[in-house]
Amino acid sequence: MKEGRPASFYWLAIVFALFVLFLYGPTITILALSFQGPEGGLTLPMNGMSSFWFAKLWAGVGVIDIWSAFARSMKLGLAVMVLTVILCVPAGLAYRMRFRGSTALFYVTIASLIVPSIVVSLGIGFEFRLIDEAVKGLAEAWDIDWLAESYTTAMGLFTSALGAHLSWTLPFGLLIMFAVFNRFDRRYEEAARDLGATSWQTFRHVVLPMILPSVIGIGLFGFTLSWDEIARTSQAIGDRNTLPLELQGLTTTVTTPEIYALGTVTTAISLAVVMLALAAISLLRRRQARHGSDAGKGLV
């Protein structure tokens, strides 16, 4: 006689279903409400179904230039993604060997994760205000009139905001590289060197192809963390907000599903970036399979 599943299985299944509902229910609800009809409101039940609020969003949200904020967030996210990869890969390689100060440097880097984001943002904002005062003071002391008249602030998208976002993405990227290289089989490198390859050739033709899916993952991680970052940006962005900050501001002024349409668009972009990264990783896997190599398997 076939025995049924134990009662614990069904209880755990219910808990898991509630967890999934808690995790994705709000997002699905907002996505559905963004397709309300012209008479629809911010709550259920839905009043018609249309793309009216997306068209209204496309035309602009009041006095806020939402598409300029969108462009700024996209540029900042791409810059953070590139710099996170450029800095984390060499750092991961460096930590494969012991060097003086490596432990202290590691703790200094990781400490950024445990410091509250708003404190980091306040600190960066304060630092740049000191720089502004110093520049203006020097310009006046040295009678550099054009600088004293034209200088406003060094705080901006690719200075203070970029630094604030990197303080969030670099520790994660470094930890991922640690996990990758801890499972990396060094015999591949030794074989390349035995065949006469230089250090650069070994990295370019052996190490990089094997870790490339993970490098893409780090880039994806950097972009998505930057794309929806609010706390670290809030005090370090200067006078032009990113999209998440504009979205946060709209929650107190916009009382139509237009704000849900904006949330749906930003979520769709995040998903598109994730799908692109997964497609790139899948393409690399197939390319490795075609060439009869199992390099990189298990490193993602």
Keywords:
300 residues
The beta-strand count equals 0
Sheet bearing the most strands, described?
none
Q: Structural class per helix/strand content?
A: mainly alpha
For the residues shown, what is the average pLDDT? Answer: 85
Give helix % range: over 70%
Q: What does this molecule look like?
A:
The protein starts with 6 loop residues before the first helix and ends in a 10-residue tail after the last helix. It is 72% helix and 0% strand. Helix 3 (66-94) packs parallel to helix 7 and helix 3 (66-94) runs antiparallel to helix 9. It has twelve helices and no strands. The mean pLDDT is 85. The longest helix is centred in the C-terminal third of the chain and has 33 residues, at 258-290. The chain is mainly alpha-helical and 300 residues long.
Question: Which SSEs are present, and which pair or pack?
Answer:
Layout: H1 7-33, H2 52-59, H3 66-94, H4 102-114, H5 117-141, H6 145-150, H7 157-182, H8 187-194, H9 199-227, H10 231-234, H11 243-250, H12 258-290
Helix pairs in contact: 1-12, 2-12, 3-7, 3-9, 4-7, 5-7, 7-9, 8-9, 9-12
Summarize the structure.
The longest helix is centred in the last third of the chain and has 33 residues, at 258-290. 72% of the residues lie in helices and 0% in strands. α3 (66-94) packs antiparallel against α9 (199-227) and α7 crosses α9 (199-227).
